[in-house]
Specification:
Two copies of one chain form a homodimer. By secondary structure, chain A is of the alpha/beta class. Chain A folds into two domains: 23-107 and 148-266 and 480-486, Aldehyde Dehydrogenase, Chain A, domain 1 (3-Layer(aba) Sandwich), CATH 3.40.605.10; 271-450, 3-Layer(aba) Sandwich (Aldehyde Dehydrogenase, Chain A, domain 2), CATH 3.40.309.10. In chain A, 37% of the residues lie in helices and 17% in strands. Chain A has a seven-stranded mixed β-sheet, sandwiched between helices. In chain A, helix 2 (47-63) packs antiparallel against helix 4 and helix 3 packs across helix 4 (80-103). The longest helix of chain A has 24 residues, at 80-103. Chain A is globular, with a radius of gyration of 26 Å. The N and C termini of chain A lie far apart (67 Å). Residues 119-137 of chain A have low confidence and may be disordered. Chains A and B meet through helix 4, strand 3, strand 4, helix 9 and helix 10 of A and helix 4, strand 3, strand 4, helix 9 and helix 10 of B.
Chain lengths: 533, 533
């Protein structure tokens, strides 16, 4: 029996479009092996041609914009306006990585020329001379030239909630290609038709721009995904999804005979703290902003603020409840997500010590995958004892009410790692409290936000979309922004190579005009003078 | 019963100095927790004071040089000349990281100022405005400022073969402190007295220079090491040692409820290929250099070249055997290392299809832990079928004899990841072969060496001492050279913070004078003009 992913419409709950068959094991193996064979020719493409691959993909997606957005809306129900914007984000992201490849500093070239006075010592002590003499420690400095090279084929696990920006042609794929790595995408079952179609477009665009055979492929099915993570040809994995899914695949990657880097962006509670002065100055505005952020996209963002810390007696119950009840939500992505949300939010509301501002809807009157927001409140002291820190995917949030700064701090102490943490405060009246909150959050979150909201992740060089476990499996890395490319690059040092044998990036003349650090000084010039050859 | 590490003299095999007790579980917990408490005050020290910590450690080690070298020689038998040089390397390494901290580019500051034209859109779309409007994708760019911050307390597992440079005050400790991280060292049982004494010196030097209480400690014993890897306060691990030990601790780190980065530098075969033209031009010189390198320090270097690929009919048997037999070796480090070497080298010599150039010594006549080199040869075709790729720690090496380039390449195809790979060739007569070998090796090794030897790892910015599994558990990172600091730093992005609340490194005025990248341009100046505040 062939197993399939059957897309359904979130608007109706009914099947839409053709079912997509799961990829057979031998076909997964064939595609991963082909990616392995594509690694060297892809890495060898000159940087402008590598940038050209990314631009070709962006152009091809733009050329099919209308059909893609329509297909995405049919399968995800996220709405054509949002999806059109997300497609723009996706093509802008591809262009950003193309710019990065052309600029070249991502290769992180560091050159240390030999210490000329140590040359004789070096020859004497490292072979050819008196072999009984112990190793020179510290050894004299030879000519050493280091750069980053592609790590090899990357498996990319798509997310369900961003069918363009974190899917087949999303940030993981774009950054892997920018690094010079072949990609095999494991499609998300929530938008299988869109994944297959996007995969065709990407593969054709890459081929048209001179990309190597087998350098890009899409596979479908959970078993196909697991097979990728353990395939000998796969050198790294990028994943966006749930903590449970991320953990299972992380464990699989670590259990390989040769473990490989596994970059998962998983769950996050994204706490928001509002100080007493901020409530006094603009409580209703903060409450409205919070509701807009936690209900955005039906709460299906990894940056959804799930915890709002308010001073007790905040007086914002009504505005929070009314604004939430009137927020216009798109449907959720899938039947099983609706079920999980109904179960999770009902448990939340039934928790001992919890006050319900907006209860779960007991009856389901709407068609498709529509749900209503759920909002509960709990005292900080109670929260500190038994934290409500299970992330509830969807439009649900917990208000944590604190009596004092000590009370607040004890509750914050229980929080796990997060992608973001937000402070709403008044800098003039509470500078010490603000500073203390920011300092605390920098140790627990990847991005610290001031008087704003975590939803909306700008794609730029200074972005960091990451954080300590369980926000991610790799706290040194980001899955959004230009430094995401670093996940798929590893250093190599070349020692004492003749100039013609060096990669172009490392030659004395700097024929690629790259930014390089030579003997501690940064520049784009050639190596000349007494230290050059 | 108290379990102890009893040091013995490699010169005599007899106990030397006092036994050092293994650290009790509650004491390990206490020291790890203290390191956790020290994380914030250590991270908060101004960079010049952090650099001062490293210089204070270097000065304190120099002040006790004679006693330390004597103690090291008594426990390791590596000889006072080598150990004196290694201590110099260690203090030079500490000074290098102090310079790095003062220079500041290691913080990798990236600042993207807001897109002023997007300001109104941003306010409108991300809260406070029409909440039904979908998220702006790509969202307008807010003020984003990213820098690296310390990851938290680091557990360091010392190596036995470098009692200074990869031990208590070695590269892992120096790079962790440079990153701003507290350190708890698990001492190597081979030099427990030296480890304890070095630990006292380091702790006193740090305290004297204003380091926080509990920011540095040493523990002894295997159980203590395992407890560190799973301790909630420990945020990352640096390890230098065997593949078996590294794998066991890697699995432990991955099995935590909150897995942490585990940086292991493990085993490596460090292949060397010599081309026919190189043999013709300077065969005897290459053979002598190889022997000097593989027997250096009794073959107890992670960069020991364990495989030498020579063209069949090379005619170098005699020079290889004679030079090896006359190489003056120090004793090995420990009884169990001698046993493992005797067992491993005997297996090597007894392997089907192997020709023995220098057989294992069947009788043991010398005192202490002295051994003799072992050298065997095997045909490349036989090697390609059943590779001899178990690393044999000690003065043993395998010559692999190839009949053709295809024969050579088939044998190379079987090699696992390595720290280094070396090519001896003649660039004028064999440019294509040389280029092909270098290109192949860059995918399998961290450092590619031309007409030299892998032993001798310069401590410098362009160094890369790493490589794909099993050379290391983290192919993106190095354990030697200034970029080793990156293992212990994680990014944080600050969004829209008022200038006075930003860390000094990110403020408009750039009060620390750091190298920063602002809107894509690198420089050390302040942010001024229309894009500033």
């Amino acid at each position: 029996m062939t197993i399939v992913d059957q897309p359904t419409s979130p608007y109706t709950g009914e099947p839409v479009g053709d079912a997509i068959a799961h990829t057979a094991p031998e076909e997964v193996d064939r595609r991963a092996a082909a990616a392995g064979r594509a690694a060297e020719p892809l890495a060898a493409l000159p940087l402008p041609r590598r940038a050209g691959l990314l631009r070709a993909v962006a152009d091809a997606l733009e050329a099919d914009r209308e059909a893609l957005v329509g297909l995405a809306d049919a399968e995800t129900g996220l709405g054509e306006v949002r999806l059109g914007g997300e497609l723009t984000r996706t093509t802008v992201q591809l262009a950003m990585f193309a710019d990065l490849v052309e600029e070249g500093s991502f290769l992180d070239v560091i050159i240390d020329l030999p210490d000329p006075e140590a040359d004789d010592r070096a020859r004497h002590e490292r072979g050819g001379g008196d072999q009984r003499r112990p190793e020179a420690v510290p050894p004299p400095r030879p000519d050493l030239r280091r750069m980053l090279v592609p790590i090899g084929p990357v498996a990319v696990f798509s997310a369900g909630n961003f069918p363009f920006a974190f899917s087949v042609a999303g940030g993981d794929t774009a950054s892997a290609i920018a690094a010079g790595c072949p990609v095999v995408v494991k499609a998300h079952p929530g938008h299988p038709g869109l994944s297959a179609r996007t995969g065709e477009i990407v593969a054709a665009a890459l081929a048209g721009a001179g990309g190597p055979d087998g350098g890009f492929a899409v596979v479908h099915g959970l078993d196909a995904g697991r097979a990728l993570v353990t395939h000998p040809a796969i050198a790294a994995v990028g994943f966006t999804g749930s903590l449970a899914g991320g953990r299972a695949l992380f464990d699989l990657a670590c259990s390989r005979p040769d473990p490989i880097p596994f970059y998962a962006e998983m769950g996050s509670l994204n706490p928001v703290v509002v100080t007493p002065a901020a409530v006094a100055a603009r409580g209703a505005e903060v409450a409205r902003g919070f509701v807009a952020s936690y209900t955005l996209g039906a709460g299906q963002f990894c940056t959804k603020p799930g915890l709002l810390f308010l001073p007790a007696g905040h007086g914002l119950d009504e505005v929070l409840a009314v604004e939430s009840a009137s927020a216009g939500l798109p449907p959720m992505l899938a039947d099983r997500i609706v079920s999980a949300f109904r179960r999770g939010s009902a448990e939340l509301a039934a928790t001992d010590g919890v006050r319900t501002l907006l209860p779960p809807q007991s009856t389901v009157e709407t068609t498709g995958y529509r749900v209503s927001p759920v909002l509960v409140a709990v005292a900080a002291a109670r929260f500190a004892e038994r934290p409500l820190i299970e992330e509830c995917f969807g439009p649900a949030a917990v208000i944590v009410e604190y009596d004092s700064t000590a009370d607040l701090e004890a509750a914050l102490e229980t929080l796990p790692g997060a992608l973001t943490a937000t402070v709403h405060a008044e800098v003039d009246s509470e500078p010490d409290l603000a500073r203390s909150l920011i300092n605390r959050f920098k140790d627990r979150a990847g991005r610290v936000i001031w008087n704003g909201w975590p939803t909306g992740v700008a794609v730029t060089a200074a972005q960091h979309h990451g954080g300590p476990w369980p926000a991610t499996s790799a706290p040194l890395h980001t899955s959004v922004g230009s430094t995401a490319v670093r996940r798929f690059l590893r250093p190599v040092a070349y020692q004492s190579l003749p100039d013609p044998l060096l990669p172009a990036a490392l030659r004395d003349a700097n024929p690629l005009g790259l930014p390089r650090r030579v003997n501690g000084r940064s520049g784009t010039g050639p190596i000349t003078g007494p230290l050059g050859r």
